[in-house]
């Protein structure tokens, strides 16, 4: 791998995609949204009716990304991180949002009650966030970023750029 790869992760609604798209437009890094990749490549095994989303086939996603990740210069955007090989990423950013703000964002996006409550609980207990990332990657390569206010977008872009 010649150029650095970055993983952006966090609970749904923390605006990780907004951040990553803005960062990639400024840098020329290649952007990969794993949810989009999964749908386009049909890299799923069934559909979770309760949450309204496909069930990701992790091994197929890893196989699909392997060559691209070797080339480097990529930002990967996904709400989970524990199934990606550790050697793929030089740095991991976990985006966090205050629960009251997150609740409003998810409600505005039309999340059903079950999916909304589960995402809020994930944020509270850091199930899909910082602790998972720290357990999956070198501790010094994992960083938290706060995404409560629109003004924080620029600060987070600058942090990723460093």
UniProtKB/TrEMBL annotation:
Its Gene Ontology cellular component terms are: Cajal body; cytoplasm
One GO term in the molecular function aspect is:
AMP kinase activity
Q: Where is this region: LID?
A: 108-118
User: Which stretches does the entry tag as region Disordered?
Assistant: 141-162
Catalytic activity reads: AMP + ATP = 2 ADP; ATP + H2O = ADP + phosphate + H(+)
Pfam families hit by this protein = AAA_18
Primary localisation category? cytoplasm
Gene3D superfamilies under this entry?
A: P-loop containing nucleotide triphosphate hydrolases
The Polar residues compositionally biased stretches are 143-162
Q: Which compartment or compartments is the protein found in?
A: Cytoplasm; Nucleus, Nucleoplasm; Nucleus, Cajal body
What biological processes does GO assign it? Answer: ribosomal small subunit biogenesis; rRNA processing
Binding residues for ATP: 13, 16-18
Swiss-Prot/TrEMBL keywords: ATP-binding, Cytoplasm, Kinase, Nucleotide-binding, Nucleus, Ribosome biogenesis, rRNA processing, Transferase
Instruction: Give the enzyme class.
Output: transferase
Spans annotated as NMPbind: 33-56
Report whether Transport shows up as a keyword of the record. no
Quote the EC number. Answer: 2.7.4.3
Which family does the similarity line name? Belongs to the adenylate kinase family. AK6 subfamily.
PANTHER family in the cross-refs = ADENYLATE KINASE ISOENZYME 6 (PTHR12595:SF0), POS9-ACTIVATING FACTOR FAP7-RELATED (PTHR12595)
Subunit structure of this chain's protein: Monomer and homodimer. Interacts with small ribosomal subunit protein uS11. Not a structural component of 43S pre-ribosomes, but transiently interacts with them by binding to uS11. Interacts with COIL (via C-terminus).
Q: What does this protein do?
A: Broad-specificity nucleoside monophosphate (NMP) kinase that catalyzes the reversible transfer of the terminal phosphate group between nucleoside triphosphates and monophosphates. Has also ATPase activity. Involved in the late cytoplasmic maturation steps of the 40S ribosomal particles, specifically 18S rRNA maturation. While NMP activity is not required for ribosome maturation, ATPase activity is. Associates transiently with small ribosomal subunit protein uS11. ATP hydrolysis breaks the interaction with uS11.
- Protein's UniProt name: Adenylate kinase isoenzyme 6
Q: Which gene holds the coding sequence for this protein?
A: AK6
